[in-house]
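Obj.: predict assembly geometry.
Materials: sequence records (below).
Method: joint structure prediction, all chains together.
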Amino acid sequence: MPQCRICGSAIEAFMSFGKMPISNGFLRPDEFDNEYFFELAPAICGNCAMLQIIEQPDPAKMFHENYAFFSGTSKYMKVHFAEFATAIQKHHLARYDDPFVVELGSNDGIMLRVFADENIRHLGIEPSKNVAEAACARGVNTICEFFSEDVATQIVLQHGQADALLAANVMCHIPDLASVAKGAQALLKPRGILVFEDPYLGDVVGKTSYDQIYDEHVFVFSALSVANAFGRHGFELVNVEPQITHGGSMRYTLAKKGAKQPSNAVALLIAKETELGMDRAETFDTFRQNCETSRDQLMAVLNDLREKGAKVAGYGATSKSTTVMNYCGITADHITFISDTTPTKQGKYSPGAHVPVRPYEEFIANYPHYTVLFAWNHSREIMEKEKDYTAAGGKWINFVPKVNIQE
Ligand code: SAH
Ligand code: TMP
Ligand code: ZN
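Observations (raw structure tokens):
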């Protein structure tokens, strides 16, 4: 029986999405035969409420010198991270002399550049070399490492303890959360804070956004599971702030036990999650049924369009779309290409389904009749940008929260 990665209790998958490739593993035709697959099967721990995938590929297979995701591709995410950094600066760092801020998974420096520009002492910990280099080139101090207790000890030796440890869309990637929590204890000053945000389980369940479950996302957090996981290592959840990013995220603030007074928002959210059953098997049984319905409806639409000979494309070769395409069985017969603005993805093929990824310019030059909005989490930005497509009669196919064709 598999064991919970947090508390060691026995866990069991509540569903399987089937065999999955590396979600950001865009590839060339000569690599198709050697593609790596694992079984994507999530479980909820009845003891500590952590949603987790049972099998996760080795992190070195996912985060390396050719990591395909550059944070800076979304203009709204740039604004979001500028606001995140400013809030930390104003509400926390401003009261200290010469503060020091560390970020895990700092990618191309989308958030730390704000601190760098203000001459605030900062350090990014980023294991994917290509994105780490992009950050350094932008003047953001970055070391190319996976964060761990050992790395934390090294940082303290070199730079002293930190006032804030930040992380966005990366804590849920790290299977050994105990090492992160112990590292954070060592790294932070007594009144230092650990602030991280990730896609929120309440949104995933509420919107059937099952595509948030993929290889990199070993966990999908709730306030319940975060309080339990970090509570085991001397941290207390002192604030929670919902975010609209990535289709619904939560920002968690943790402090060393007893250092800060928890806000009312924490107790309220924990009560709400308990009422909604975010720790109960029945909730995830319903979720599984909702995933199956979503899959069947999306395939009914795509099969119908294929029969009619309509030209269908995808928008955004997101890591999330790897789960959707491989779980639903979408192939290059359904979708002729996926448009994406990321140069390293262009000219390659999507993981598992092997749908060509083409430059955005091709989408503009030859509008498809229908477009599956894989990057639905950036919908506001994309709808603003693609008014001409809609005006020209192009239709969007959505699947979160419900499958529909947007007329
Ligand atoms: N914070 C950015 C990037 C998120 S993508 C944003 O929100 O847009 C996740 C990043 O975390 C990747 O760049 C990946 O290389 C990095 N990462 C993965 N495991 C890590 C670990 N153990 N320690 C630090 N960074 C890690
Ligand atoms: P994400 O959902 O993991 O943030 O990935 C978004 C992907 O979509 C990324 O590969 C960039 C791509 N993208 C576009 O092609 N056009 C856009 O307008 C946006 C916002 C993203
Ligand atoms: Zn557990």
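Conclusions so far: The CA atoms of residues 331 and 353 lie 5 Å apart.
To do: check interface contacts against the pulldown list.
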